[in-house]
Specification:
- The protein has 302 residues and is mostly helical.
- It folds into 2 domains: 111 residues, no CATH class; 157 residues, no CATH class.
- It is 72% helix and 7% strand.
- The protein has 11 helices and 6 strands.
- The strands form 3 sheets. Strands 1-2 form a two-stranded antiparallel sheet. It has a two-stranded antiparallel ribbon with strand order 3-4. The protein has a two-stranded antiparallel ribbon with strand order 5-6.
- A hairpin with a 3-residue loop joins strand 3 and strand 4.
- Helix 5 packs across helix 11.
- The protein is globular, with a radius of gyration of 20 Å.
Length: 302
Amino acid sequence: MSELAKRVLVAVIAAPLALWIVLAGGAPLAALIAIVSAVGAWEFFRIARGAGARPLDDVGIALAGILPLAVHAHYLGVFSARPALAAVVVLLVMAATIWLRGAHGAPLLAAATTLFGVLYTAGMLAFGYAIRYHDIVAGYDSVGAKHLLLGSLAVAIPPGGALLIFPLLVTWASDIGAYAVGRTVGGRKLIPSVSPGKTVAGAVGGLIASMLVAWAYGRGVLVPVAHLGLSPWGALTFGLLISVAAQVGDLFESLLKRDAKMKDSSHIIPGHGGILDRFDSLIFVLPVAYVLLSWLPIPVFQ
């Protein structure tokens, strides 16, 4: 099977499943983020080892998988996540390096790489869950899901689901816009020492595509489904900043792989490389989107 066929097959299977999970929210969404985070942490530590570090792989992978589940439990009210608890976890990781690495096992680098790997993967991706249950849509829980027509199919979209789809769709638009314009126009390279294939024209194309999609989605979906509006400038600002975050996230992961002299973070997804290769943009996008969605939307009373 060709690489293109593998890409298409994976997309056909994964896209509807991911959409269902985003709309369902709750435990399915937390489980998906936990799995992606744990595998992403494994890939990150693989990259780190290629760059000469010796992280505490098992500890970091476990923490990356637990963190999104802990966020889910926090939203359910099972327990209250406090900064002191996070501090204790950090201290335990640092303490573990005493026995697992010792004086001659680069303990400082091991502890720092392990903690950063958890923060970079689970710490950032967990904002996807936080967006799904963002405070700005909490007041409309009683309204329930709205039905939008996709061709002849009516799809039930809850307000939180519409909110989470927003940055995902804008990120997708940025990737497609950058690829299409970059391939068509070519020209000056963006940062060839980090990612030789990216061009300035492609970066601009990604920005424009994101801004247009943000404006359209704000008017066509957020207002009727999530009871939220965006001013024209607010929508364009959201699209612009999300595209910047997405492109920087892509470049940062490329920088990590270049440091480790690796082409892909892994080969776990047929035709697509690794988890980090697919989620590198969202790692930067989701926290930025959470902040922007706290500031820009305007409640619409219908």
